[in-house]
Design brief:
Metallo-beta-lactamase, Chain A, 6-stranded mixed sheet, about 230 residues, globular, single chain
């Protein structure tokens, strides 16, 4: 297993026989070095989308066409892109599990919103927001996506038993570090916590110290520096 932070809430996950681009926002992402684009995309097999906001989905269709790989995510948005953009998709819903190159990806709840801008600038509904439990190579990753803490995390932690948490911690639009630490302590038993969706803009939290005292390894990844959690 190998993870690479692409900046903001975007990741590259190499697991089993898959190389999954999760919420890949490369165009206009101030955290992503444009000269590393080819490296970030090399050998990608799937694009996994948590919700429709532009900082998570705006590159999905173009990358799917460029790389010839499917976009995976909430059924409503996948059907829209497949019918309107002619891209290959794998649409499913909360509680569903799909096999991506041997990795088992289960869609779980998130607490956020999901829309993108239409041609007139008005928001267009993009299906429900989601997180994912990704199982493979003897590990289970909880990719929270954009979310606040929620009571659903209790059964998600109990049922899926994730040992790695990639948690949005930037605040303002998602959990901040203190809220993420509360959720991790109350409902999960992570060996490793990885910070996501932060440091992109001054608006997003920089101090993740509340996550340091949970007994889990805390990883603050460097952009485009692969690592094994």
């Amino acid at each position: 297993m190998r993870l690479t932070w692409l900046g903001h809430g975007s990741w590259r996950l190499e697991i089993e026989n898959a190389a999954i681009l999760i919420d890949p926002w490369l165009t206009g992402n101030p955290s992503f070095p444009a000269e590393k684009r080819a490296e970030a995309l090399a050998g990608a097999t799937h694009i996994l989308i948590t919700h429709g906001h532009s900082d998570h989905s705006s590159d999905a269709v173009a990358l799917s066409k460029e790389l010839g790989i499917p976009i995976v995510g909430i059924y409503d948005l996948m059907q829209y892109w497949e019918s309107s953009q002619g891209v290959a998709t794998i649409g499913f819903n909360k509680g569903g599990t799909v096999d991506l190159g041997g990795a088992r990806v289960t869609m779980v709840a998130a607490c956020h919103s999901s829309a993108f801008s239409g041609s007139d600038g008005a928001p267009v509904y993009a299906g429900r927001e989601s997180g994912y439990m990704i199982a493979g190579e003897g590990r289970v990753i909880y990719f929270s996506g954009d979310t606040d803490i929620m009571a659903d995390m209790e059964w998600m932690g109990d049922l899926h038993r994730p040992d790695i948490g990639i948690l949005s911690v930037g605040g303002h639009f998602t959990m901040d570090p203190a809220r993420a630490a509360y959720a991790a302590k109350r409902w999960f038993d992570f060996d490793t916590i990885i910070c996501s969706h932060y440091r992109t803009f001054p608006l997003l939290e920089l101090d993740v110290s509340p996550l340091r005292d949970l007994g889990a390894k805390l990883i603050e990844a460097e952009v485009m520096v692969p690592f094994t959690p």
